[in-house]
Protein backbone atom coordinates (compact mmCIF):
# COMPACT_ATOMS: atom_id res chain seq x y z
CA UNK A 1 0.00 0.00 0.00
CA UNK A 2 1.23 3.49 -0.82
CA UNK A 3 0.15 4.65 2.63
CA UNK A 4 2.52 2.35 4.53
CA UNK A 5 5.94 3.25 5.87
CA UNK A 6 7.25 6.56 4.59
CA UNK A 7 10.18 6.11 2.26
CA UNK A 8 8.85 2.83 0.91
CA UNK A 9 6.01 4.40 -1.05
CA UNK A 10 8.17 5.42 -3.99
CA UNK A 11 9.75 1.97 -4.24
CA UNK A 12 6.34 0.30 -4.05
CA UNK A 13 4.92 2.62 -6.69
CA UNK A 14 7.93 2.03 -8.99
CA UNK A 15 7.58 -1.74 -8.54
CA UNK A 16 3.88 -1.60 -9.38
CA UNK A 17 4.49 0.56 -12.46
CA UNK A 18 7.28 -1.75 -13.70
CA UNK A 19 4.93 -4.69 -13.27
CA UNK A 20 2.19 -2.92 -15.20
CA UNK A 21 4.62 -1.88 -17.95
CA UNK A 22 5.89 -5.44 -18.27
CA UNK A 23 2.32 -6.70 -18.69
CA UNK A 24 1.63 -4.07 -21.36
CA UNK A 25 4.75 -5.05 -23.29
CA UNK A 26 3.95 -8.77 -23.08
CA UNK A 27 0.37 -8.16 -24.22
CA UNK A 28 1.56 -5.94 -27.07
CA UNK A 29 4.01 -8.61 -28.20
CA UNK A 30 1.31 -11.31 -28.21
CA UNK A 31 -1.17 -9.10 -30.08
CA UNK A 32 1.45 -8.11 -32.65
CA UNK A 33 2.36 -11.75 -33.29
CA UNK A 34 -1.34 -12.57 -33.63
CA UNK A 35 -1.93 -9.67 -36.02
CA UNK A 36 1.04 -10.52 -38.23
CA UNK A 37 0.54 -14.25 -38.70
CA UNK A 38 2.05 -15.43 -41.99
CA UNK A 39 0.26 -18.74 -42.38
CA UNK A 40 -3.00 -18.38 -44.35
CA UNK A 41 -4.49 -21.22 -42.33
CA UNK A 42 -3.64 -19.57 -39.01
CA UNK A 43 -4.92 -16.20 -40.26
CA UNK A 44 -8.18 -17.84 -41.31
CA UNK A 45 -8.54 -19.44 -37.85
CA UNK A 46 -7.68 -16.17 -36.11
CA UNK A 47 -10.26 -14.30 -38.17
CA UNK A 48 -13.02 -16.84 -37.45
CA UNK A 49 -12.19 -16.83 -33.73
CA UNK A 50 -12.29 -13.02 -33.61
CA UNK A 51 -15.59 -12.97 -35.47
CA UNK A 52 -17.12 -15.39 -32.97
CA UNK A 53 -15.64 -13.59 -29.95
CA UNK A 54 -16.84 -10.23 -31.27
CA UNK A 55 -20.44 -11.38 -31.04
CA UNK A 56 -20.20 -11.73 -27.26
CA UNK A 57 -20.66 -8.53 -25.26
CA UNK A 58 -18.90 -10.18 -22.29
CA UNK A 59 -15.84 -10.95 -24.43
CA UNK A 60 -15.85 -7.44 -25.96
CA UNK A 61 -16.03 -5.83 -22.50
CA UNK A 62 -13.29 -8.10 -21.18
CA UNK A 63 -11.01 -7.27 -24.11
CA UNK A 64 -11.70 -3.55 -23.71
CA UNK A 65 -10.77 -3.70 -20.01
CA UNK A 66 -7.62 -5.69 -20.81
CA UNK A 67 -6.51 -3.23 -23.51
CA UNK A 68 -7.23 -0.28 -21.20
CA UNK A 69 -5.11 -1.87 -18.48
CA UNK A 70 -7.98 -2.46 -16.07
CA UNK A 71 -7.69 -6.25 -15.93
How is this structure best summarized?
The protein is mainly α and 71 residues long.
Question: Any chance you could write out the topology, listing elements then pairs?
Answer:
Elements: H1 9-35, H2 40-54, H3 57-68
List its salient traits.
single chain; 71 residues; mainly alpha; 3 helices; elongated
Report on the architecture of this protein.
With 71 residues, this protein is an all-alpha fold. The protein is 76% helix and 0% strand. The protein has helices spanning 9-35, 40-54, 57-68. The two termini are 19 Å apart. The model has no long low-confidence stretch (mean pLDDT 88).
Elements, N to C (H/E): HHH
Looking at the structure, what is the overall shape? elongated
> What would the average pLDDT be, to the nearest integer?
88
Helix fraction by DSSP (H/I, runs of at least 4): over 70%
**Number of strand elements:** 0
Number of helices: 3
Structural class: mainly alpha
Distance between the termini: 19 Å
Amino acid sequence: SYFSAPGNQLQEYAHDRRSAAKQVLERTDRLTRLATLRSPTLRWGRDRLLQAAGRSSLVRKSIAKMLAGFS
